[in-house]
């Protein structure tokens, strides 16, 4: 039946995971058994009936494209209701929308993933993709920071990434904490201290706006050209399909022309 | 179309409207309290067609202020059912060229999209537009500065115009010639009076010149007394920004789209509190550039149709077209500075 794209499809929550004190991951499958063909960096709109919908990056997609996940920080009304949802419950889903990371174009180049807090969610599918195509990429370096050790997301993945010799993993927290023996410091500072080299690599950055901005500064200082730095931008969205207007940066719409941008494609004041 | 003009004698208007209303839902301008808006025609009511724009645009007929897109039962588990698009034939009569241009712009937003809006599309498909040539330009009208004119017919199916002894009609599309088959209309050699229309009321710099003013102090000065009330956006025939929300009334729930405004602080405020357009100046700049620069980049046409409703409605009389003169002055200032330095 002809209806608007704005009407969501039902999806069943198949696994709910506590990632940290205020972040939960929701794995789900579409009610009609159809596949979710999202590419790394794309997002979906998730609805709780009666409470509206909000935009979330797809944080994992199963190999069969049936099961996919969003990772949700409890922030407002909708996310609070989502956090109350249990396995077996039905939510609404629209998408996937937006331009993905051009992972195919990066073949032959090393990839540096730099994530801050919930900003790791849209980047995890990039990591998954590269790990599934190791022969196409010479290496993977991951810098991930959170406020406290408890705020580090995807702990199982972090443990697996730490064991994988293909990956160079650096985790950091904002302030010293008992029992924490790894790095301490804000992500942009750590990125600078690590002296990340641009040599035939691309950097992929996502986190709070200030973290993206300062990480870009740090990378530029280390000799990275804007053409090698990618980010995925946060913007308030409602429709996700380039109609409702609010996510614009100049004449570009974050939902349709992004959310993935190369730094040279966006005005510097938009970070 | 080669078909010529047909005359409807003034005294036959009521009978003609009745005949149109017999075959379709008919919408015409109607005075409601202190202002004019479109309303559904009821047989036998006295109808006047204002000779220039009316206060409320026809936007809401195609994209309602509050538009249910799905229904659900709030007390049940997932029960979302899409709203069926309307399909009964409809005639909207008396839209002026600037309002029709507004619909053409909305077509680009809602239909020239990877995900066309089927509810909007249904409203378009069921509607025949009987547009009206303006026989005057109000002091706030400036369509002639926006690549339009009071005589423009693009986007209309039928056009009509005021004449001395009645109304002159002309079909513009094949499918709607039948509307003018009524015996009340008689072929005539008469034509609407050709007029010279004033120009240059609200000139605005071109898209590139405006983009050069992006970092100018102008926006701070221009926005200092803006109330950010958003009235200009609701009055505008091309402002289509919307929000999506769930509304619940007992056992009935609706997911709706509702008009929103880029002039509101909350419009682009993210859940984290981060807001890329926190200041009045940033919001005023965004809307001005959207009307006169971004719209060209996105949709190949200006989203200002020159209707002047924002000029009429602005409580501080500092609407976007009115800023145009000052913007042009600023462009000239910059040019002369560049020559000096």
Could you characterize the architecture of this molecule?
The complex is a heterodimer of chains A (271) and B (341). Chain A is an alpha/beta fold. Chain A contains 6 helices and 15 strands. Chain A has a 7-stranded mixed beta sheet with strand order 10-9-8-7-11-12-15, with helices on both faces. The longest helix of chain A is centred in the C-terminal third of the chain and has 13 residues. Chain A starts with 8 loop residues before the first strand and ends in a 9-residue tail after the last strand. Chain B has 10 helices and 12 strands. Chain B folds into 2 domains: 182 residues, no CATH class; 129 residues, no CATH class. Chain B is of the alpha+beta class. The relative contact order of chain B is 0.16.
Strand ordering within the main sheet of chain A: 10-9-8-7-11-12-15
The quaternary structure here is heterodimer
As a whole number of angstroms, the C-alpha radius of gyration of chain A is 18 Å
The SSE order of chain B reads EHEEHEEEHHEEEEHHHEEHHH
Query: Roughly what fraction of the amino acids of chain B lie in strands?
Result: 15-25%
Work out the strand percent of chain A.
25-35%
Q: What is the arithmetic mean of pLDDT of chain A?
A: 94
Count the E strands of chain B.
12
- What summary fits the major beta sheet of chain A? 7 strands, mixed
Q: How would you describe the shape of chain A?
A: globular
**What count of domains describes the coordinates of chain A?**
2
Element pattern of chain A in H and E: EEEEEHEEHEHEEHEHEEEHE
CATH fold label of the largest domain in chain A = Rossmann fold
Helix content of chain A: 10-25%
């Amino acid at each position: 039946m002809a209806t608007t794209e704005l009407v969501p499809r039902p999806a069943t929550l198949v696994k709910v995971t506590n990632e940290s004190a205020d972040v939960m991951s929701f794995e789900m499958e579409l009610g009609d058994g159809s596949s979710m063909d999202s590419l790394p960096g794309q997002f979906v709109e998730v609805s709780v009936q009666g409470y509206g919908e909000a935009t979330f990056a797809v944080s994992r997609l199963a190999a069969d494209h049936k099961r996919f996940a969003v990772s949700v920080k409890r922030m407002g009304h909708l996310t609070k209701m989502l956090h109350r949802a249990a396995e077996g419950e039905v939510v609404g889903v629209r998408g996937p929308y937006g331009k993905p990371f051009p992972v195919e174009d990066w073949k032959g180049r090393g990839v540096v993933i730099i994530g801050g807090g919930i900003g790791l969610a849209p980047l995890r599918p990039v990591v998954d993709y590269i790990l599934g195509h190791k022969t196409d990429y010479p290496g993977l370096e991951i810098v991930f920071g959170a406020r406290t050790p408890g705020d580090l997301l995807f702990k199982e993945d972090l443990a697996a990434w730490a064991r994988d010799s293909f990956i160079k993993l650096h985790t950091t927290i904002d302030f010293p904490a008992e029992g924490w023996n790894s790095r301490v410091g804000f992500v942009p500072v750590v990125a600078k201290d690590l002296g990340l080299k641009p040599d035939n690599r691309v950097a992929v950055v996502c986190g709070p706006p200030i973290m993206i901005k300062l990480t870009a500064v740090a990378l530029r200082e280390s000799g990275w050209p804007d053409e090698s730095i990618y980010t995925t931008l946060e913007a308030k969205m409602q429709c996700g399909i380039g109609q409702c207007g609010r996510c614009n940066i100049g004449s570009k719409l974050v939902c349709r022309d992004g959310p993935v941008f190369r730094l040279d494609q966006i005005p510097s004041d938009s970070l | 179309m080669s078909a010529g003009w047909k005359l409807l004698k003034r005294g036959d208007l009521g009978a003609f409207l009745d005949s149109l209303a017999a075959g379709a839902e008919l919408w015409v301008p109607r005075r409601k309290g202190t202002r004019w808006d479109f309303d559904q025609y009821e047989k036998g009511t006295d109808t006047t067609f204002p000779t220039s724009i009316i206060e409320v645009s026809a936007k809401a007929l195609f994209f309602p202020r509050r538009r249910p897109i799905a229904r659900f039962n709030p007390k049940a588990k997932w029960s979302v059912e899409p709203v069926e698009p309307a399909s009964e034939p409809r005639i909207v009569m008396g839209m002026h060229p600037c309002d029709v241009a507004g619909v053409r712009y909305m077509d680009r937003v809602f239909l020239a999209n990877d995900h066309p809006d089927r509810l909007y599309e249904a409203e378009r498909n069921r509607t025949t537009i009987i547009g009206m040539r303006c026989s005057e330009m109000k002091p706030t009208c400036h369509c002639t500065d926006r690549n339009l004119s009071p005589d423009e017919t693009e986007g209309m199916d039928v056009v009509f115009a005021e004449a001395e002894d009645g109304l002159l009609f002309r079909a513009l599309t094949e499918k709607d010639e039948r509307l003018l088959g009524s015996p009340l209309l008689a072929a005539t050699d008469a034509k609407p009076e050709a007029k010279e229309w004033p120009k240059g009321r609200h000139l605005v710099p071109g898209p590139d010149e405006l983009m050069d003013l992006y970092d100018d102090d102008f926006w701070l000065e221009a926005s200092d007394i803006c109330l950010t009330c958003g009235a200009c956006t609701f009055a505008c025939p091309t402002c289509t920004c919307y929000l999506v929300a769930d509304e619940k009334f007992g056992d009935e729930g609706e997911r709706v789209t509702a008009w929103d405004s880029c002039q509101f602080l909350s419009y682009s405020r993210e859940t984290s509190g981060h807001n890329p357009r926190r200041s009045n100046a940033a919001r005023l700049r965004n809307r001005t550039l959207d009307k006169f620069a971004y719209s060209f980049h996105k949709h190949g046409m200006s989203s200002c149709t020159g209707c002047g409703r924002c000029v009429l409605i602005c409580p501080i009389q500092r609407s976007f077209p009115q800023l145009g003169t000052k913007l042009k002055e600023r462009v000239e200032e910059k040019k002369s500075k560049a020559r000096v330095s």
